[in-house]
Structures are given as C-alpha cells and as structure tokens.
Write a structure and sequence with these properties.
By secondary structure, this protein is an alpha+beta fold. The chain has 2 domains: 225 residues, Spore Coat Polysaccharide Biosynthesis Protein SpsA, Chain A, CATH 3.90.550.10; 75 residues, Immunoglobulin-like (Sandwich). It contains 10 helices and 22 strands.
Length: 374
Amino acid sequence: MSRIPIILHCTENYLQNSLNLIKSLNLYHDNLDFYLYTLNFEYKSDISNLNTIYITDENIKNNMSFVGNKNDVNNKNMFKSVFFKSKVVLDTIDNLKLDFAIYIDSDILPTGEISELFGFIGQVDEYPLIQQSLFEFQINYGRGNPFHKGGFDQTNILEYPLMDKHHIPIRNRTHYSVTSVMIYNKNCRQFFKEYDWLNEKALDMDLEDIKFFYPFSDETTMNVLLWKYKYNKRLPFLQMNIDDIVNVKEYYESNYNNEKEVTSYVRVPSKNERKHKLFFHGAKGELSNEIYNLQQNMFNHRLDLNNNKFYISSNVDLKRNIDIIFYDDKDLIYQATSNVEKGPEYWFSPDRKFKEVNKLVVKIYDDGKLIFKI
C-alpha cells in the first residue's frame, strides 16, 4: 500500500482547521494524498500532496462561525454542512474512483504518526469502520439516559426517535460509535447511498426537529444504519477528547499508570495506552492553531558540523526515555535513547561525520511512535 488517500470537507470557517490537520499529518507521514472538498468556496492550495475539490450546494449558506471553540448549534446551515459528508464520500467513490479512503473530520489533529490506523484498511467489508465511543449511551439536549425514573426507558435513548421513525428495532442497538474517523472502500457505496438518503431527510426539517431526530447530525444517521443491518465491527477508540491546550500538554507530559479522568468527556490515557490514542478530538477554532503550533515546536535543534554534534532540547516535559534516530535519507546512521525533560539541551555525535551526510533526517519516537521529524 504505497499512497493512502485522506478525505476532508469543510466550510470556509473550518478551512484553517482542515489545513492544520493536513500539515500536522505531513509532519509524521510522507505517504498520504489529501482530498479536501471546499463547500461553497474556492481555495487553491500550495501543499504538494493536497488536492482541493470545489463543491457547491445552493441550499447551504456560507454564514457559519464558531462560538468560542464550539460549533454554532443554532445555525441550521451548520447542520446542513455536516450532513453533506455523505455526498462527499460518495463523490470519492463515484468520481474520484478511489478504491479505499480514510475520512477525517476537521476538528481533529493527530497526536503523532497514525500508522496503527492503516492496519484496519483491509478489514473493511461493505460498510465503513468507525470508532466505538467512550460511552454506550450519548446525552444531548437533555435527553439520552435510559436509566431514569427507577428503571430502563428505551424511549429516552437519543437515537430512539429516528429508529422508531424508520421501524428499526431498538434491540438491534449496540454500543454507540463516533464518526470522526471513518475507513471505507468502494464496496461501501450502497451503504453510503442509504446514509445520504437518510441525511437528506433532515434537510427539510426545522432546527428543533433536526435536534430531536438527528441529535448528533450524520453521526446519528451512521449509528442507526449500522444497527439496522447489525453491522457490528468497529475500530477501537483511538482518540482523546479535549477541551483546551492544557489537555494536549498533559497528554504529552503525563506518565500515569492509569487513565486520568479530567471530566467524563476528557480522559488522559495511561502511559501504556498513550501511543494508541492517535488523535485529539475537539480541536475547533483557535485551539487547532495552538495544537499545531505546539507540535511544530515540540523540539528545538541545531547542528554543529565542526564538532560533529547534533543538539536537541524539548519544549514539553516528557520525563521519559525517547528514541532519537538519525538517517542519511533512509539509511540508518545512528540511534540513541535519552530521558528527555523540558529545557536541557542534549547532544548526539555518531561515528559518521555529519559533513558527509547527503540528506540528514532525524526522527524522534515515543514508545515506538513517531512524534517529531526533522
């Protein structure tokens, strides 16, 4: 598998978030091709592996903005633009003729390399693979908890109205799943056609009915359809939900033996699980810029050719062993392991002279996962 297509779509207010996602993934990978669908606005990219696709819908007004680091849930056009995802994935199959792809929402940034995700591509059948959620039941707009009034009330399950409307037995329901990352192939086309049809049903509703029947927009649609056909294969939960940049710094700097619950939504993984959390989820607005800036500047570095020394210092307090590997292009030169803290400068001096290296590449790994590349 030489090149991997990554699909995104955005409205104009999300453009910078989408670009941050693309540029962040390019920090860690050189085998990705990006296809960014720009909804109702044109954008010409100078990123070599990014293809932009202008796509329009006259029924969606380009008047969306963030409320802090959150979406404006009082703007119906925001919901319409999210439902548009189904048309985007269908276009990648019908017009781009992609055999497979990975769709990623633009409120996500990687924590480092995401190679672990690529191992699931071959497991896709006739429906997409999405992540099983943290929670079995979602709560939104004051609804969703079936365990109330001293018993179990299935009519209070958030997806019940849509399932009931389309005669899908509630007994088919399994653990809730999230659609922020979605692996699919061309064999999923029929599933996506129905996904798009069910999304379109929402567009004629008023805002309150959308919130009632589709409380998590197209994610509600996706879960309901997967349950309809008893399609129960899922990705593991690969993301860390975040609220602010403090959560991101804690992800990198913590060395907890057990998961830490900051809030029910934000949970910092244990040191053994950290490398399996591939994404930060919730990186909207300015928070996306803050995370990308942190990732770009995680390490300072300088090269002393006269003394054949390479110096690095960390801007995050890792306080654990980090592997630093030196290459001449793809040929291994030297590798070392150091316990890296914030501030001190560490130096490395391989037997081979840096002056003789044609293309110096330095990769920094945390527990086998690439987190920085020079």
